[in-house]
Prior knowledge:
Rossmann fold; 15% strand; 13 strands; CATH 2.40.50.140; alpha/beta; 5-stranded parallel beta sheet; 50% helix
Amino acid sequence: MTAAPNLVNAPEFTVSELSSALKRTVEDAFGHVRVRGEISGFRGAHSSGHCYFALKDESAKIEAVIWKGVHGRMRFKPQEGLEVIATGKLTTYPGSSKYQIVIEALEPAGIGALMALMEERKKKLAAEGLFDEARKQLLPWLPDVIGVVTSPTGAVIRDILHRLEDRFPRRVLVWPVKVQGDGSAEQVAAAIRGFNAIAPGGRIPRPDVLIVARGGGSLEDLWSFNEEIVVRAAAESMIPLISAVGHETDITLIDFVADKRAPTPTAAAEMAVPVRGELFVEVQALARRTMVCWQRAQESRRSELRAAARALPAAGDLLAIPRQRLDHLAAGLPRGLKANTHAHFRRFAASSSRLTIGVLRGQIAHARQRLTASGERITLSARALLHRRRERFSGLEIRLKASKLANAKAQRNAIARDLERTHRLAERARRALVTTMQRLEARVAHSGKLLSALSYRSVLARGFALVRDEAGHPLHSAAAVGPNAGLSIEFADGRVAATADANQPPATVTPESQPKPQPREAKPAAPKRVTKPVDQGSLF
């Protein structure tokens, strides 16, 4: 017998370490893979939103999982028994020591799988009655507004607009959508429901007919129009809908639920509106036929009138018998009047024989009794009415007094509130006036200080002097002073008169700066005053 190998020196792993090592090995060795198989054990999305199922073929099976976010973005949803091609990452699940594929993309395996899925959806929707002819609506004969759900950049919308322009121009509202790829089905369904949600008579007109259009393509390209969300939106549309998806040989599920199926988008435009030129020709033909029918009817009535006029007897023949009857009745009229008079006289005599004095007195007494009873009843009624009116007026008087008291109390309260409000407003006005006066006094004081600071007298107080001429104008330079000119020198404490030195050469004064002095008469020279020079210092 051979001895068992000594494994004492073999490294030990925990279960978690071994599972992590296997997980890294599987993910590094395979990474992203594409697996083809049949979906098995799919029961719909879990309560968490994730999907768990298996992919199998004839001899093997692998567990698969689709996370919630990926499942919401998938164009093709997993279904039990559907053969698909799954793209994802191979990994392991340590909790049950099994490997699985985390699917990131899912697509049917070939055209056969798509056709099988389409047939299954078709049977399901047909069982719900969405394809019944009784549900389909009639197209309007001449719609005012046409809504088009298609791509705004393709040739389909141009073909529809050109065909409408050729046949009968109508207002067109285009709802731009994607017609292929992820999210296209949701956009088409939202466009159909959006057109139906437009309120009639609003700022945006509600379409009278809808056209869902797309150009030709493969089954995969047209698959958005086989989605349940699009088919159910078309079935719920209260606006008649024309399906124009693909070419004449292309069949989608929206064709079965639409109110009308057009082989091409151009044919859909032809179904939506008639030909205006043909309508003009038809109207003219109907007008001509109406005029001819009217002329024929008039001629027929004219002929009938002529025939009836020829068949009528002469006027004398028609009036012969009535004339004879009139003459006979006129002859018997005097006798009838006499007989009628005698009959009325006999009736009057019989009535007058029954009118005696006793009968008249009895009738008068009976009438007097009725009059007395009526008077008593009127008196009692008047007293009762007067009593009720008196009671009513008493109640109204009490209510009026109570109302007057309540109204007076309310008015007193209102006056008290208004008086209190007036006092509050007066107090606020007084405080506002005090505040305003203080602010104005502070402003005046500040202005006074500023005026004192900017006044020339403050400069004079620092030892400077202001020299003025005879007219009282201040002098700014020695050149402006003429010989023997009278000057006034202002100090801080008063003014001193002075005369300019005559030995100083006359200053040259420009015409612009000093006006030319007027000639004066010669005066005796006044004795010269000697002024003590004052040291004014510097202003700075």
